[in-house]
UniProtKB/TrEMBL annotation:
Species the sequence originates in: Pseudidiomarina taiwanensis
TM helices/strands, residue ranges: 280-301
Domain AAA+ ATPase: 42-185
Keyword annotations: Membrane, Transmembrane, Transmembrane helix
PANTHER family reported in the protein's UniProt record: GENERAL SECRETION PATHWAY PROTEIN A-RELATED (PTHR35894), PHOSPHORIBULOKINASE _ URIDINE KINASE FAMILY (PTHR35894:SF1)
InterPro entries attached to this UniProt entry: AAA+_ATPase, AAA_22, ExeA_AAA_ATPase_DNA-bind, P-loop_NTPase
Protein's name according to its UniProt entry: General secretion pathway protein
GO MF annotations, alphabetized: ATP hydrolysis activity
One Pfam family it belongs to: AAA_22
């Protein structure tokens, strides 16, 4: 309806997965890098999770286009299967013929095993991609694990990519699936787009659709990001309806008013109206939330700088009570929102909760200029018991700062798997890239990186050094405003 009005030749914000509109944000590219690393490793499972509409399908499609021609793939789009249905579906996807009479799990497993051995002999890799994997039954996941038992001395003959919503992570924590969880060589939780990515996303889709000039004002795009929280599918729905609202007003550009009108039409109520109705009951609820959120940090201010293994950094450990506390304002809430993380419910300690998003928490005592060199937003502990949230290099510590800090950082690929080839390869690339001396020993490479970052030179790959490496080696996550520029 609005195409001619805006000079477009196709609908720019359809939710259909059209390849010509494929936009790989920095976070999508990082997720893709994690999955690609995982396929190069020696394990059998790769995990990609994210909320509905964050672009998991986008990443998986991009991954498949990068696979070599010698890769045999099987897709399972309906995971509501029992063990035998799973095996039969895999045979169908791989083109394996089998007699349907007197069918048993053993017969199907034998067929699949022979197929995998033959494919390996022919130099082919076999990959299974399962979407909506949070719906898989534990016994079906266990059947998949048994299939990945087939291996050579160097690699698994079958790789399984599990794609699902955050509940999939909870499923894999079940005790009966602990063996499968140990075989996950790469995992990534896809967060929503950041504001800058939303702006590029909107302009990119408009250009593909034929736009020759800006159609959305900067304020309108910012409003779309706020209302839809950076989730691509929800962005598409709102942007499409905002275009229609502008067309009905005979406007040449989409304004904040059109976005608000579209949001009200889609949701039955605009975000502004919801904010205007916040009265004493809501304020009381917000006060309770602020108090509860303020109970999360005090008991985790202990040293986490020791290596996890001989040269691997550790993340913050919780107190013996298993709870993190803070008696301050909502500083932690600001930090979590900066990472676009969901609300922290305190149902589990903070640091293990962050690890479910492939994030770590790090704390200790450093000079402020050294913290700025790491590059992540942070909390500073104040001597009066409060905390200061730092998100820009232009900010300065309060006079009450006692030198202690806490920050959230992006974990490297496959960091949680001990002696992972994926992690070791990533680490080597980062350190050698800084030193430009591939023949150097590890201690020398680490020392060089610490000198480059202005961090304490110990030769040990502690938490601060690894966090600084990930800040430079990944595009994901927030950075201090003004850092690196």
């Amino acid at each position: 309806m609005y195409l001619n009005h805006f000079g477009l030749h196709t609908v720019p914000f359809s939710i259909a997965p059209d390849p010509q509109f494929l936009y790989m944000s920095e976070r999508h590219q990082e997720a893709l890098a994690h999955l690609s690393y995982g396929l190069q490793g020696s394990g059998g499972f790769i995990l990609l999770t994210g909320e509905v509409g964050t672009g998991k399908t986008t990443v998986s499609r991009a991954l498949l286009t990068q696979l070599p021609e010698t890769t045999r793939t099987a897709f399972i789009l309906n995971p509501m299967l029992n063990e035998q249905e799973l095996l039969a579906t895999l045979c169908d996807e791989f083109g394996i013929r089998y007699a349907k009479r007197n069918l048993t799990n053993k017969k199907l497993t034998d067929k699949l095993s022979q197929f995998l051995l033959d494919a390996h002999e022919a130099g082919e890799q076999c990959v299974v991609l399962i979407d909506e994997a949070q719906h898989l039954q534990p016994q079906v996941l266990e059947q998949l694990r048994l299939l990945t038992n087939l291996e050579t001395n160097q690699e698994k003959l079958l790789r399984v990519i599990l794609i699902g919503q955050p509940e999939l992570q909870d499923l894999l924590r079940r005790r009966e699936l602990r063996q499968l969880a140990q075989r996950i060589t790469a995992r990534y939780h896809l967060l929503p787009l950041q504001a800058s990515d939303t702006e590029r996303y909107v302009h990119y889709r408009l250009q593909v659709a034929g736009a020759t000039q800006g159609i959305f004002t900067a304020a309108a795009i910012k409003r779309i990001h706020q209302v839809r929280e950076g989730i691509p599918r929800r962005l598409n729905l709102l942007a499409d309806r905002a275009l229609l609202a502008a067309y009905n007003d005979s406007a040449q550009v989409v304004s904040v008013k059109h976005v608000n009108d579209a949001a009200q039409e889609l949701d039955g109520d605009s975000q502004q109206q919801k904010s205007a109705r916040v009265g004493l009951p809501m304020l009381a609820a917000l006060l309770v939330i602020a108090i509860l959120t303020g109970i999360i940090l005090a008991s985790i201010w202990q040293n986490s700088e020791s290596p996890r293994a001989s040269m691997e950094a550790s993340t913050v450990q919780e107190s013996s009570a298993g709870k993190a506390e803070v008696n301050s304002n909502n500083a932690l809430g600001q930090l979590l929102r900066n990472w676009q993380l969901p609300a922290y419910s305190q149902q589990q300690p903070l640091c293990p909760w962050l690890e479910s998003f492939d994030l770590g928490c790090l704390q200790g005592q450093l000079r402020f200029d050294q913290l700025v060199q790491i590059g992540y937003p942070m909390l500073l502990e104040l001597s009066d018991g409060g905390y200061q949230f730092i998100s820009s290099t232009e900010q300065t510590p309060a006079a009450e700062w006692n030198g202690r800090y806490l920050l959230i950082w992006q974990l490297p690929p496959d960091y949680k798997s001990a002696d992972s080839d994926v992690y070791q390869t990533w680490l080597e690339r980062q350190l050698v890239g800084i030193a430009q001396q591939p023949e150097s020993d590890l201690v020398s490479l680490v020392r060089n990186a610490q000198l480059e970052f202005g961090l304490p030179v110990t030769g040990q790959l502690d938490g601060t050094t690894l966090a600084a490496l990930t800040a430079r080696g990944f595009a994901n996550g927030p950075r201090l405003q003004g850092w690196g520029g």
